[in-house]
Amino acid sequence: QVQLVESGGGLVQAGGSLKLSCAASGRPFSTYSKGWFRQAPGKEREFVAAITWTGGSTSYADSAKGRFTISRDNAKNTVYLQMNSLKPEDTAVYYCAAVFRGLPTMDRDYTHWGQGTQVTVSS
C-alpha cells in the first residue's frame, strides 16, 4: 500500500525556520515527482512547491520563492521542504503529494497524498 508520511511540523515564532520531511513507503516513489501543498483554516488547499524525480527541476508558489526550498533524497525515498523566514500567514496544514510525472501545481493532478503536518507560526 502506498504511503506518504509527513513530519517536522510544529510551533515556531515569526522569522524562524522549520524543515518538513515526507517519507514514502509501500512502493518505489523515487521516480515520482513530489509536491508540497498547504491548507489554512477556512481556505482552499494551495500549491507550495514541487520537484521532479531527478531533482533537476523545481517549482515554487510566489509566496514560497526566496524563503522555501524543496529537495529530495531518493536513496531515502524522502522529500524535504526547508522553510525559512516564516510568517504567521504560513500557518497551515502542510501536505506532501506524489505524481508519476511532470511538475504540476494543481492538487487534482497528484495521485497520492500524505495525512499532513501542522505548521503554526506565532507573531
Describe this structure in words.
This protein is mainly beta and 123 residues long. 0% of the residues lie in helices and 50% in strands. It is built from no helices and 11 strands. It has strands at residues 3-7, 10-13, 18-25, 33-39, 46-51, 58-60, 68-73, 78-83, 92-99, 112-113, 117-122. A hairpin with a 6-residue loop joins strand 5 (46-51) and strand 6 (58-60). The termini are far apart. The relative contact order is 0.31.
Tell me the overall shape: globular
Count of β-strands? 11
What's the SSE pattern?
EEEEEEEEEEE
Mean pLDDT: 94
SSE map:
Blueprint: E1 3-7, E2 10-13, E3 18-25, E4 33-39, E5 46-51, E6 58-60, E7 68-73, E8 78-83, E9 92-99, E10 112-113, E11 117-122
Parallel strand pairs: 2-11
Antiparallel strand pairs: 1-3, 3-8, 4-5, 4-9, 5-6, 7-8, 9-10, 9-11
